[in-house]
């Protein structure tokens, strides 16, 4: 399951990069991950009243948090794919369960 998702995120990211002239050098993966962490934090701050709501409803702010969390997950999986990391094996070691489909 994770390997499939990694390939799907890689394909989507590669297409986006090509369409927008983005060079995904080795540092790009870590820098994008850091950027997405900031965006999740910003969405969290809005939702919890620690940031400006910008006129958004609670449902809109929850959707923003979900969207940014999806971006963060995508960039975690892109980094893992780029570096050839065995995330499923790491989940088994660290979380003590086997990821299933």
TrEMBL record:
InterPro entries: MazG-related_Rhizo-type, PRib-ATP_PPHydrolase-like. It holds the Pfam family PRA-PH. Gene3D superfamilies: MazG-like. This is Pyrophosphatase. Coiled coil: none annotated.
């Amino acid at each position: 399951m994770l390997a499939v998702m990694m390939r799907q995120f890689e394909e989507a990211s590669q297409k986006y990069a090509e369409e927008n002239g983005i060079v995904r050098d080795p540092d790009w993966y870590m820098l994008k991950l850091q950027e997405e962490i900031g965006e999740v934090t910003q969405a969290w701050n809005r939702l919890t009243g620690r940031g400006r709501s910008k006129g958004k409803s609670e449902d809109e702010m929850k959707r923003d948090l979900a969207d940014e969390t999806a971006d963060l997950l995508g960039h975690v999986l892109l980094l893992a794919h780029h570096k050839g990391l065995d995330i499923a094996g790491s989940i088994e070691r660290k979380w003590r369960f086997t990821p299933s489909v």
